[in-house]
Amino acid sequence: MSKPRVTVWNEFRHEREGGAAEECYPEGIHAVLAELFESRGFDVETATLDEPEHGLTEAVLDDTDVLTWWGHAAHEEVADEVVNRVQTRVLDGMGLIVLHSGHFSKIFKRLMGTTCDLKWRNEGERERLWTVEPNHPIARGVGEQVVVPEAEMYGERFDVPAPDELVFTSWFEGGEVFRSGCCYRRGSGRIFYFRPGHETYPIYRQTEIRQILENAVEWAAPENADAPSFGEVPVGPERRD
Amino acid sequence: MSKPRVTVWNEFRHEREGGAAEECYPEGIHAVLAELFESRGFDVETATLDEPEHGLTEAVLDDTDVLTWWGHAAHEEVADEVVNRVQTRVLDGMGLIVLHSGHFSKIFKRLMGTTCDLKWRNEGERERLWTVEPNHPIARGVGEQVVVPEAEMYGERFDVPAPDELVFTSWFEGGEVFRSGCCYRRGSGRIFYFRPGHETYPIYRQTEIRQILENAVEWAAPENADAPSFGEVPVGPERRD
Amino acid sequence: MSKPRVTVWNEFRHEREGGAAEECYPEGIHAVLAELFESRGFDVETATLDEPEHGLTEAVLDDTDVLTWWGHAAHEEVADEVVNRVQTRVLDGMGLIVLHSGHFSKIFKRLMGTTCDLKWRNEGERERLWTVEPNHPIARGVGEQVVVPEAEMYGERFDVPAPDELVFTSWFEGGEVFRSGCCYRRGSGRIFYFRPGHETYPIYRQTEIRQILENAVEWAAPENADAPSFGEVPVGPERRD
Amino acid sequence: MSKPRVTVWNEFRHEREGGAAEECYPEGIHAVLAELFESRGFDVETATLDEPEHGLTEAVLDDTDVLTWWGHAAHEEVADEVVNRVQTRVLDGMGLIVLHSGHFSKIFKRLMGTTCDLKWRNEGERERLWTVEPNHPIARGVGEQVVVPEAEMYGERFDVPAPDELVFTSWFEGGEVFRSGCCYRRGSGRIFYFRPGHETYPIYRQTEIRQILENAVEWAAPENADAPSFGEVPVGPERRD
Fold first, then answer.
1. Distance (Å, rounded) from C-alpha B163 to C-alpha B183?
2. What is the ipTM of this complex?
C-alpha cells in the first residue's frame, strides 16, 4: 500500500496570540503535526481556518486520504458548506482524526449526531493513557500506558455514541476517567477521536503520542473499496411469477 | 412504570391524494398507529407536517416520551428548526422510532451522521422478517419470523452506523436482504429504525408488526435517569500538592 | 412483571477463616447480598460451594431468574458438571451477575472464551466508579460517580471480549483504570460483570453499590422470550421448482 | 508486513469415503485451500484430524499466524488438549478462520461461549451473500454480492455473540437469512466465521469466495503487538501518603 496523503487542519488562532500557545507551538500545531507525518514518509499538506475555504477545497479533499482536525476557539467560524464537504468525503472513504478540543467541532458533532459534550478542567494534571485493546493497530508499539506529564483534564460522561472500538482510556490526577481513543466507522470512512493534545502543552512532541498518531493515520486510510450502489434497482433476480 | 406518552408523527400527504395510499390508510397512517398505541393503553397524540411547526412544538415534545416518525415525499419540507428541536429532545432522553421511508428523514440522517441510503424496488414482494436476537425486548412475543405478504423491497448496503443491537433481518422474494430492526443509543435517548411499512400496503394493520411497534415504544421510553452534567468542573477531588 | 427469583452463590471460605473477611462479613457475603435482594422484594435463595452440587442443582437453577456469583480462592473446586449446568441455563435465559474476583471463575471464563485476566493490587485504595452510560437501566439512580473509600485495585488490560455495553469505568488512587461494569448477551441470557466488592471491605453494604446490584438483577432477569428453534428444517417455504 | 504463515486444518473424513465429497474434493478440502493460499504467496501447511495430535503440535501452532478450520462429522474426536492449545494460541494472537460446519467445532464453541447452533437444510439452494460493510478489509474486491449457485442453507437464529463486525449476510432461495461473515476479537487474536463452503459443493473453487478467504487471512494475521502483562503490580505510581 502506498503511503497515505495526510492533510493537517488547524484552527491556528491561539498560536498567533502571543501567549503560552505561541510559545509552545510557535509555527502552529499544524507545523508540528506536519513535520511528524513527513518524518514517517507520508505525503502531507496543511490547511488552516483563515485560508479561503479554510484551505479545504474540493481539490484538496479529493487528494486527501486522511484529514486531521484541531480546533478550539472558533468552531462556529467553520463554514457549513465546508463541513458538508468534509462529511461527504468522510462518508466516501476519507479517514478523519479528531484531536482533543476538536470534540466540539461542527464536523465531529455532525458525524456523531450527539452533543459530544464532556467535563473539563485545565490545571496541568498528569494523565495516564491506558491501552484497553493492546492488539488494535492504533496501539502498535505503544505499550501498556503513556504518561502525559501535564494535560487538560477531560472527564466522563463523554456524550458520543458508544465507539465501535475503544482503544485507550485515560486516568487523571484529579480523579476522572475518559474514553480517550475511540474508533468509528461511518459510511465508507473511518474516524478516530484522540483526546490528548492542547495548545499550551507540548503533547504532540511526545514520542508515544506521535506513535499513536502515526498508527491512527495508517488505520484511517481508505481501503479503496468499490463504492456501494444505492437507489432503485430493477426486477429482483429471484423474482418469479 | 407508567405507560409512555407517544406522539405519532406523519407526513400525511400521500393519503390525501386519492390513490392507493388513501385507499389503504383513508385517515392517514398516523390514525392507524394512534389507534394501535391507544389500544395498548398508551397516552397518544398525533402531529403532521402541515400543522404549524409540524405539530411538534416545544410543549408537545416536552410531553412526549416516544416519538414515531413516518415521512416519504416531503422530507425537505421539515423545518430545520424543528429537526434541531427533535434532535435535542432525543439526546435528552425522548425515544424515537423511525419507520420505513423515514430512513431518509432529516432527523434520522442528523442522528446517524451518515447518508442512510439503501437500495429499493416497489413490486409488492413478499418479505420475511427474521428475528436475529430472540431475547431482545423488541422481539417479545414475535416468534421466529414474520411474513409480510406484500412489501416494497429495501436492500443492503444500508448506509448507517453499525447498530448497537440488530434485532431483525429481512429476506425479500427478489433476492435481497436488509437489516430491518436496528437499535441505537444516542445521548440519553434510544432510537429504533424499523423497516416494514409503506403507504400502499396494510402492513401497520398486521398483528405481528403491531406487536413489534408496541414493544419498540416500551423499549424506547426514557429511563428518567439523572441528566449527566457537562462543562468546567472545579479542582479535582484527588488533586494534592 | 413479577419480581425476579435470585440465587446468591458464594464460595464462602474466606469468611469462615477467622480473619478480616469474617469480621467484615461474619455470616458470609451471600448473607449480605441475600438481605439486600430481599429488602427489594425479590425472591431470594443462597447457595455455597461446600453444599452438595455447590447448592446449584437442576431444580435450584430451574427456579432461578438471576444468579449472582462470588468466588475467589477456590475457583478450581467448582465441579465442571455444575459449570456446564450453569452455562446451559444462562444460554437458555437465566441472568448472571459476576462479582469482583468472580472474573476468574470457571463459569465466567467459559462464557467469555478468554482468560479474563487483569492487573491487581490490594492496598485499600480509593476507587471512583464513573458512570459512562448514564441512561443505562443499571445506572438508574446511581449518579455520576460512586466513591468506594477502600478497594482492591483491578487494572487494564482486562482480557474479556469488548462488552456489548460498557456502563461504568473505575479510577484508582494508584493510577489505574478499569472497565468495571460490562454487559454481555450470550444465547438468551444476560451477563453483567461488576468489579466492586471484596471479602475484606464492606463494599456490599454501601448504598450506591446496592442500588447498582438491584438494577443489575432487574436488567438481567429473562424476557421469557420464546426459545428459538434449531436444527434441520423442512423444504424452504419459498422453494419453487 | 511479511506474508502470513497459514495452517489449513481439515477433518478430512468425508473426502475419503467415496461419495460426492470425494468427487468434489478428491485430495481433501485442505488441498484446495492450501493451493489457494500458496497461489497468494502465503506460507502454507496443512494438518488433519487423523494425524498425531491432529497435526496441531505446539511447534506447528507456534509457527502459525492464521489457522483455518473445517470440520463437520467428527467434532467430538478432536482432543480437548488440542482445543486448549489452539484456544491459548488464539488468545495470544493467532488468527482463526472458522469455515461453514466448523460453527459446531469445539474450538469455536469454546471461544464464543455459546451453543453456536443454527437452522440448516441441504437442498443445493442458491445463496446470495450480500456485503453489509463494503469498506471492511475482508470485503475488498468482492463487490456487492456473491452468488453461490448451490449451497447448504444455514438460517437464523445463529446462536453466537453479536459479532464485533458483521461483514456479510446471506439470502437463501428457500426463504432464510444468515449472518455469514462475522468478526470477533478475543484476547490478542482475531476470529472470522465464514459460512459458505460444504464438502459436496465446489464453493472453495469459486473466485469471489477465494478472494474473501485471502482477505480474511490478511485481516486475521496478528499485529505482533506487545503482550499485555497481568497479575499483581507493585505500589501504584500515584499513591501518596
1. 6
2. 0.96
**Alpha carbon separation from D169 to A231, B165, B169, C83, D156 (Å, rounded):** 19, 15, 9, 33, 11
Q: What residue numbers bound the domain in which C69 lies? A: 5-114+181-220
pLDDT digits 0-9 by tens, B82-114: 999 999 999 999 999 999 999 999 999 999 999
For residues D74 and D61, give the distance between their C-alpha atoms in angstroms, rounded to a whole number: 21
Cross-chain Cβ contact C119/D230 below 8 Å: yes
**Going by C-beta distance under 8 Å and a sequence separation of 6 or more, which residues neighbour residue C233?**
D119, D120, D121, D155
Give the number of other Cβ atoms within 10 Å of residue D231's Cβ. 9
Q: What is the DSSP letter of B139?
A: G
What is the average pLDDT across A57-84?
98
- CATH code, domain carrying B67: 3.40.50.880
Has residue B156 been placed in a domain?
Answer: no
Exposure of B45 in the CB half-sphere (CA atoms within 13 A):
17
Identify residues of A whose CB sits under 8 angstroms from chain B CBs. 87, 91, 110-115, 117-121, 123, 125, 153, 155, 157, 159, 161-162, 164, 172-176, 184-187, 228-239
* Cβ <8 Å between C175 and D239: yes
DSSP symbols for D155-220: ESPP-SPPPSEEEEEEEETTS-EEEEEEEEEETTEEEEEE---BTTBGGGGSHHHHHHHHHHHHHH
What pLDDT score was predicted for residue C226? 79
In a domain, D81, yes or no: yes
What's the number of domains chain A is made of? Answer: 1
Out of B120, B186, B228, the one facing A161 most closely (by C-beta) is B186
Q: Is residue A145 part of a domain?
A: no
Is residue B202 in a domain? Answer: yes
Q: What is the C-alpha to C-alpha distance for residues B203 and B74, in angstroms, rounded to an integer?
A: 21
What DSSP letter does each residue of C15-48 carry, written as one string? Answer: GGSSSHHHHHSTT-HHHHHHHHHHHTT-EEEEEE
